[in-house]
């Protein structure tokens, strides 16, 4: 069975290898990109669409990361139903453990642990 | 019976009795700020089973821990540098628990006139410098997974407990990294059977394995504390 493929935008050098490894162990193929421009460059020669776009919030608002995900999906002509997930970085502890659907196929996750993220990704890719 | 704070335990009975009128056992709640930058240091703290952090917050609002203070430490060492001393750092309670609070002026007076007091404080200062020096190198040279393992060991060792009630956001602040970095590192350590974690809670389940996963900095700092302050035997 083919593994689900994720386009990951991860700007943080320390988190990138850890997240990539955990995603791969959880059963995903991962296309890693460092930022929006890099994501576009990496996808231009791809022959198929990823199953999901995952963005990890760094140094900007969740809203702007969601907009980045929408731009990527649009500019790369991915299907409109391709899910976009933003991992929140700075948030109130009360939000911890929640996954919020913020659009038809857009989500913000406030992970209490890494498993919560993996469960959400599997649910959206299946 | 030896005192549960190592610095108090290495004092002679005579010195301890002299200081005793100025010592008060108190309970410190998690999140309490004990000192803010530029304030004069009025109290010193000898932790018993709480964990305290020395932190710096940058102009951009990011926080990082610069020193970890537990039952083999003393918080507020800068008070010995003069009667109206302050520091650019902040002191915060990381894990609730008991500590001995001491009035700074009488301890400074004892430091100025008593060689034993001076020796203990200066040896501890050297140990703290060793910790800060090692952390500086560690932050630059070791990967996050190693640093998280070291930090969990350092924290656990200072309160003598395997369970730490800390949020990932708090740990991220202490390590000066992003929350996702802590979450993903913790997942990797859990997968190896070294820790169990959920938000707000970490349990060390394989201490020797976690030491192997950590960088050498944990052992180097422990050895330096033992060399300067005597082996932990209480």
From TrEMBL, chain A:
Source taxon at top rank: Bacteria
Residues of the Response regulatory domain: 5-125
InterPro entries for the chain: CheY-like_superfamily (IPR011006), Sig_transdc_resp-reg_receiver (IPR001789)
Stored PROSITE patterns: RESPONSE_REGULATORY
Name of the protein this chain belongs to: Response regulatory domain-containing protein
Origin species: Almyronema epifaneia S1
TrEMBL record, chain B:
Native source organism of the sequence: Almyronema epifaneia S1
Protein name: Crp/Fnr family transcriptional regulator
Record-linked InterPro entries: cNMP-bd_dom_sf (IPR018490), Env_Response_Regulators (IPR050397), HTH_CRP (IPR012318), RmlC-like_jellyroll (IPR014710), WH-like_DNA-bd_sf (IPR036388), WH_DNA-bd_sf (IPR036390)
Annotated SUPFAM superfamilies: cAMP-binding domain-like (SSF51206), Winged helix' DNA-binding domain (SSF46785)
Signal peptide start and end residues: none
One Pfam family here: HTH_Crp_2
HTH crp-type domain span: 142-208
Keyword Transcription: yes
